[in-house]
Amino acid sequence: QVQLVESGGGLVQAGGSLRLSCTASGSISSIITMGWYRQAPGKQRDLVASITTEGSTNYADSVKGRFTISRESAKNTVYLQMNSLKPEDTAVYYCTARGYTGYFWNSWGQGTQVTVSS
Questions:
Q1: What is the largest CA-CA distance in the chain?
Q2: Assuming Cys at both sites, which of 44, 52, 108, 112 could form a disulfide with 6, CB separation 3.0 to 4.6 Å?
Q3: What share of the chain is helix, strand, coil (3-state, %, to 5)?
């Protein structure tokens, strides 16, 4: 599996931008997909965006056109650029990786808080 370290969360006003980063270490070559989930208080953890090793991306409908996921393979890092932020984007954002080493596995980061004020 891999270890994931996130950074870039914080407090921003509505309409502002933030960029989250997630750096992986460990069995990098076994990663198939990386992505971001978020969990608001009292709600379930939901997928925000994901990206495969081939660069294919997937977004939740609520963030399409506002968020962009990208990866920098040389740095083993995935980014989530968040623009036009809304108060409803407030949540803890978790980086995740899915890979295969004879079996499928999932790894999670520790989470980073994003708070959007109105």
A1: 47
A2: 112
A3: 10, 60, 30
pLDDT tens per residue across span 5-60: 999 999 999 999 999 999 999 988 999 999 999 999 999 999 999 999 999 999 99
- In terms of Cβ atoms closer than 10 Å to its own Cβ (0-12, 13-18, 19+), residue 39 is middle
Q: What are phi and psi of 74, to 5 degrees?
A: -60, -25
| Alpha-carbon torsion (47, 49, 54, 56), positive or negative | positive
Question: 76-104 pLDDT, tens per residue?
Answer: 999 999 999 999 999 999 999 999 999 99
What distances in angstroms separate CA 8 from CA 18, 44, 92, 100, 106, one per listed residue? 7, 22, 12, 28, 22
Q: Is the CB of residue 21 less than 8 Å from the CB of residue 112? A: no
For residues 8 and 30, give the distance between their C-alpha atoms in angstroms, rounded to a whole number. 25
Do residues 12 and 117 lie in contact, with contact meaning Cβ atoms separated by under 8 Å? yes
Handedness of CA 95, 48, 20, 74 (dihedral sign): positive
